[in-house]
Amino acid sequence: MNKTARFLSIAAVAAFSAFGAHADEADASQFALKFDTNRTRAEVAAEAATVAQTRSLEPAGSRVVTYKSTADRAAVRAAAAEAVRTGQIPSGEISSM
C-alpha cells in the first residue's frame, strides 16, 4: 500500500505540473483579432456608404406589409374622441389596468 500511495502522489504532482506547462499568456493574446490594414480610409468609407444605401429596413425573415391610408387626420381624431366618449376604448389611468 505504501508503494501505491507513493505512485499516486507522484502521478498527481506530474499531472498538475504538466497542466501549468500548457498555460498561455494572462492577456489571452491567442484570441486577439487580426485585421487587414492595407485598405485606406476612403475605401472603407465608400464601402460603408454603399452598404447603407442597399440596406433593407425589413427585418430578416419577415414580410413587411405597407399600408397607405386614405383617411383624413381630422376624421380619425373625431372617431377616436367619439369612441372615448361612448366608452368603447379606455382613457387615462384606467386604461393601464
Overview of the structural elements:
Residues 1-23 form the signal peptide. This protein is mainly α and 97 residues long. It contains three helices and no strands.
What's a quick, concise take on this entry?
The protein is an all-alpha fold and about 100 residues long. The protein has helices spanning about 1-20, 40-55, 75-85.
Structural descriptors:
signal, 97 residues, DUF4148 domain-containing protein, single chain, 3 helices, mainly alpha
Unreliable runs, pLDDT <50, ≥5 residues? none
| Percent range of helical residues | 40-55%
Can you give the mean pLDDT?
A: 77
Order of helices and strands: HHH
Structural class by helix and strand composition: mainly alpha
Biggest β-sheet description:
none
Euclidean distance between termini CA atoms: 75 Å
Indicate the proportion of strand residues: under 5%
Count of helical stretches:
3
Rg over C-alpha atoms, rounded to the nearest angstrom:
35 Å
Query: What is the number of strand segments?
Result: 0
Tell me, briefly, the overall form: elongated
Protein name: DUF4148 domain-containing protein
Signal peptide: 1-23
Organism: Acidovorax soli
Keywords: Signal
